[in-house]
Hints:
There is one protein chain. This protein is α+β, with helices and mostly antiparallel strands and 410 residues long. The chain contains 13 helices and 23 strands. The chain binds adenosine-5'-triphosphate. Adenosine-5'-triphosphate (ATP) is lined by residues 154, 156, 165-166, 169, 171, 238-241, 280, 282, 284-285.
Amino acid sequence: MKSEKGENLMEKIVSLCKRRGFVFQGSEIYGGLAGTYDYGPLGVSLKNNIRNLWWKIFVLDRDDMYGVDAAILMNQDVWKASGHVKGFSDPIAETGKQFNLMFQTHVGASEEESAVSYLRPETAQGMFVNFKNIVDSFHPKLPFGLAQIGKAFRNEIAPRDFLFRVREFEQMEIEYFVQEKDWQKYFEEFRKKMLDWTKEIGLDPKHIHELEVSDADRAHYSKRTIDFEFDYPFGRKELYGLAYRTDFDLKSHAEASQTDFSYLDEETKEKFTPHCIEPSFGLDRMILAVLLDAYTEDELGGEKRTYLKFSPKIAPIKAAVFPLLKNKPELIKKAQEVYKNLKKEIADVVYDDNGNIGKRYRRQDEIGTPHCVTIDFDTLEDNTVTLRDRDTGKQERVKIDELTSRLKGV
Ligand code: ATP
């Protein structure tokens, strides 16, 4: 079985995403809006699965993480203190003039300067400004982290490459607070965890590369940054970033807001401003990488096919249940029963009786469903079903009683 991706991979991904309801162009019927995309049902499911897995691994499974969901609109002073009003800009090609990438808006009816606000260009600041709230209500011991998943907006001068460079996207970020002397240790820890995460979502390790960002290229707040790059078809580009933000943000906000952001170590009675390690993940860039690595063309049973080799953990649909034939009431009844029981245990299960069985397999392959369950006449006799594997096309007989545990285990 020869598997490959073929030519024009980006075009194929964009077209599959639209055809099968993963991702659509934003405002499509009005000619679109550059740098915006809408996720359809399968895209939503894929995104939710990745988000939930990330939250589980980086927040729920740990004892040192605190979730935050801050407002997207923030007082403009946040962005002045963080350095974004002054420095978050890119040069415009023709004139060399600096263009600030933040979307500006006005809060309330007033058009005055005092009512200016921005759509946040990163989720990070929503965590820094809540540092004291978390410390006051939870009294966490250092090191500890705040985590947030949410939208970020950047008025990119040239949005491009599908989900890679967009104007509205989602970030999953952690601000991990440590003592200054420990920063290297935790930087290394997160470096490893970020690499583990790429495997968790099924990215090919050969496509991931670490780039030590040079002094000249680092953001104004960072003393060390590693970019995790991915081999996109349009080049090796940043997928995630890991930055050592020092105490820059807490110090800037403490000074600008006249709030005491120092941390009191209960044991040593020492008071100091913690330093911060920031792993930052872009969800949309990740979805594009996942789609690119999952996309496979091969030949099965002498026929060409396309399938998405999603890790079962993130596949939008975990299993599809089919009656072998549509016009046999006893098969339909049994298939419905199997489907409903399965759905009680595994939410992402679908039922399909449309078209011949081969077509139904191909449809599920193309959206990356790891397993198909077929109910046939033998099922009525012995309570077994056919379980088909997406990648190999191999089929085996499985007892209905064992189906849930088999599918949950993947
Ligand atoms: P780039 O250099 O590609 O513009 P960046 O260094 O400005 O990216 P960061 O500020 O480090 O990006 O943002 C953290 C993460 O947010 C990135 O690693 C990426 O995954 C995601 N991200 C940033 N900008 C965009 C964008 N325009 N579209 C989609 N994702 C983005």
